[in-house]
Design brief:
The complex is a heterodimer. By secondary structure, chain A is an alpha/beta fold. In chain A, 30% of the residues lie in helices and 24% in strands. Chain A has one domain (3-105): 3-Layer(aba) Sandwich (Hypothetical Protein Ychn, Chain: A). The chains are: A alpha/beta, B alpha/beta.
Chain lengths: 106, 136
């Protein structure tokens, strides 16, 4: 069992690749790994409660820890998050790297 | 947390991509924690440490150079090197040689150097962890 940090930087409404990255997160957790999905930059747009982001919503409750970066949220004036998404600072990236977790950027 | 060594690959050019803002914020955290940071800057990122970058005024907004306070990535690289050193870490910043030549950005700020993808390979072998931030 491995630990993964998947950093998503893209807006799912701009890039269809984001869905594949969500699927990667789901596949990794289904295979028995620990997975954290960290939304940064425009990726946080999908974390709004009103966003039509069924692929992200489908990850809630699967065991994937879903985080949205505080700075990116503030920049975009986002103050409310959908259920299952927590706010986190950029420091968590270095926390994971320090711990030796496999860290990917998309 | 004991000191770690990280290899980071950057690809985006200065002044264009939000990726770099986030990347520099991650690098800042590493430097504040006193880690060693090995950066391979390739493709557009080979211009990040270009020494002839210059801040500019913003006449449309009626601001002079000081008022505009335009950040340059070369100054961010210099500040990163200094911050890491202050906290007991070290930055080895390598600018991809072929990428630099293609773009004519071969003059670097101090404490950065010319190199090749072989340096990134060496960085990966010598690092506790690796983060690659590709362009979109």
């Amino acid at each position: 069992m491995a630990e993964y940090l998947l950093i998503e930087s893209r807006d799912p409404f701009e890039s269809n690749d984001v869905g594949y990255y969500y699927e990667l997160a789901r596949g990794l957790v289904d295979a028995g790994n620990h997975v954290t999905l960290f939304l940064v930059q425009n990726a946080v747009l999908a974390a709004r409660p009103s966003a039509q982001a069924p692929q992200l919503r489908a990850l809630v409750g699967t065991g994937i820890k879903i985080l949205a970066e505080d700075f990116a949220l503030k920049e975009r004036g986002i103050t409310k998050l959908r259920d299952g998404v927590q706010i986190a600072p950029i420091e968590i990236v270095v926390d994971h790297l320090e711990a030796g977790h496999k860290t990917l950027w998309h | 947390m004991s000191q770690k060594t990280f290899a980071i690959a950057l690809m985006d050019p200065p002044d264009e991509a939000e990726n770099l803002t986030t990347a520099f914020r991650i690098l800042d955290v590493m430097a504040r924690r006193g880690h060693n940071i090995n950066v391979f800057a390739y493709e557009g990122a080979s211009g990040l440490a270009f020494a002839r970058q210059a801040p500019h005024p913003n006449p449309v907004h009626g601001k002079n150079v000081a008022e505009e306070n335009h950040p340059t990535t070369k100054d961010q690289v210099t500040a990163l090197v200094a911050l890491a050193a202050k906290n007991g870490g070290k930055v080895d910043w390598v600018n991809c040689g072929m990428c630099v030549d293609e773009r004519g950005v071969g003059e670097f700020v101090a404490d950065t150097r010319r190199g090749s993808p072989a340096d990134f390979h060496s960085f990966c072998e010598a690092s506790d962890n690796v983060l690659t931030i590709p362009t979109k």
